[in-house]
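To whoever is covering the structure queue this week,

Two jobs came back overnight. Logging them here so there's a record in the thread.

Job A:
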Amino acid sequence: MIRVGLHGGFGEKGRTSVGIETGDRRVLLDVGIKVGATGRDYYPLIDDEAIRALDALFISHAHEDHVGGLSWLLSRGFKGRIFMTAETLAESPETLAHYGERAHLEAFPLVAEAVELFRPGDAIDLGGLTIATGRSGHVAGGVWFAAKTNSRRIVYSADVVPDSNVFIMDPLPQCDLLILDASYGADPVSGSARASAIRQWIEEHAGGCLLPTPLSGRSLELMAILPDRFAVHARMRAALEAQLAADMLFPDAIKLLRWRLAQAEDWREGQPLPSCPLITDDGMGRAGPSATAIPLADAKGCPILLTGHLPEGTPAHRLYEQGRADWIRLPTHPTLSGLIGIWEQAGKPSVLGHSCTPGGLEELRPHLAGLRGDRVTGDFIDLKEK
C-alpha cells in the first residue's frame, strides 16, 4: 500500500507539500508556507509524529510556497535527509530569511553540510522507493519528482512551465497518479500572448516603470522581453548571473540574457528611480528591495506592473485592488493547453491539481477527464500495489 498525504496546496494556493509513504519509507516533497495566512495555517498540515517519522525531505525549488517552512519542519523534530539541487540550496537562505519565523531560523538554520545535492535527471534510491527527478522549466535548478515503488509511479510536478522560452522542462514520465501544477486553472491564454501584452505595456512606459518579480524564474523571463535599456536592483545581479546555467536554459536564451544583464544599470535604495524599466524582488512587495521600491514608485507616480500571484493582504494586492498598479500575468505555470499536454504525455492518469482554488479546479475539470477535485489539504489517498 502507498499512502499519499496532501499536506498543503490542495484547494488552496500556498504551503505546497506532499507526503509519500510506503511500507518502510516516508518522504516529504516540499514544505512551503502560505503567504497571507497566520498561525498554524501558515505551514503544511502534517503532525509532529509524522514529521519525526520522515526519512527524507526533497525540495523542488527555492520559492517560499515550496521551501519556506523548512526551519519550521526542523523545529518540529525532523531528523531525516534533505535533498535539493545546488541552485536551490544557494537561493533558499534568502527565501527563509524573508518568510521563516525568526525563532525557527535562529534555532534551526539551514546548514549546507546537512544537504545532499543532486542534479536534475538524477534518481535517488531510498530502498523500496526511488525518487526520480527532471528539469521543471520554472527556475534554474527547479525539478519535478517521480516516486516509484515496485509497481506504482506517482509524479509530483511541483511548479512546471512546459512552454518557457528561457528554461528547459524535461517531459514527465507516465504514471498512476499525477499531482499537477494547476496554479492557473483553465486559463486559455498562452504564454506568448501574455508576454506580448507585457512587452507592449513596458514599451508604453519605457521612460520609467517598476516590475516587481521573484528573484528566480520570472525575473529571467521578464529580462528576455525587456527593451535594451533597463535596471535591476544591484543586489540581484549576482543571483541573476548564477541562474544562467548552461544545462538549465536554452542556449539562445543564455546568450541573450548574459548580454542584457551586462548592459543593465544598477539601482540601489536611496537613489532616484531610473528613467527606464526597473526590476526588483520580490513580486508581492512583502520582502526584498520591492518592499522599499513599491511604496516609492507609488508615491512618485511611477507606473507599476505586477505579473504574478497576488495573495490577499500583500502590498502588491492592495495596490492592484485600489487601481494603483496594473496586472498582466506572465505565465510561469502551465496554462490550459500545457496542462492538457502534460496529462496526455503522462498517460492520462488520475490527476490532483495543486496550488489552485476549488473554483479554478472546477473550471479545469471538463478539460482533464482524470481530475479529482474532491481532495483538499489534510486528505490522504491510498494506492494498492499492483
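Job B:
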Amino acid sequence: MVKFHTGASLLGHSVENPQSPDEATLERVPNPHEGQNYVARFTAPEFTSLCPVTGQPDFALIVIDYLPGAWLVESKSLKLYLTSYRNHGAFHEDCTLRIGKDLVALLEPRWFRIGGYWYPRGGIPIDVFWAVGELPAGTWVPDQSVPPYRGRG
C-alpha cells in the first residue's frame, strides 16, 4: 500500500527511487487557492511498467487532471511514485486505476480524471480512462490532446 504524507519532506533531499508503488510515498501540500475552480494537470509522457505475464516493459502517456480541494500533490513525490512502476508488473487497466485511486485517496479532489494512453503490444493499444466527482459549471478543462494511435508521439 502506498504511503501518504502531508508536507514536502522529499524536496531538497536526495532520495532513492522506490522499487514498487508499495514502497513509494505520495505527499500533499495545502492548496493556497482552495475554493477556486481551476484544474491542475500532470503529464507523464514516458511512463513505464512491466507486463505481469511476460515481464516485458509497457509504455504509456499518462495524463492526470484534477480540480483541487484543500490539497495539491507534491510533484517530486508524484514523479518518484510514477517511476516506481518501472519494476511493477500489472496490466494497463490496473496501473491506470491504481494511480487514479491512490491520488484521489491522498488529495480528496473535487473532480479527478486520468487517461492512460498505452503504446501497443501485439498491435493493439489499450487506452484506459477513469474519473470521479462533478466538474463545476464554467470550469475550463482542455482536451487531453492525445491523438488516436498512429505511431503516437
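Note for Job B: Residues 92-107 form the longest helix (16 residues).

Please reply-all if you pick these up so we don't duplicate work.
Q.
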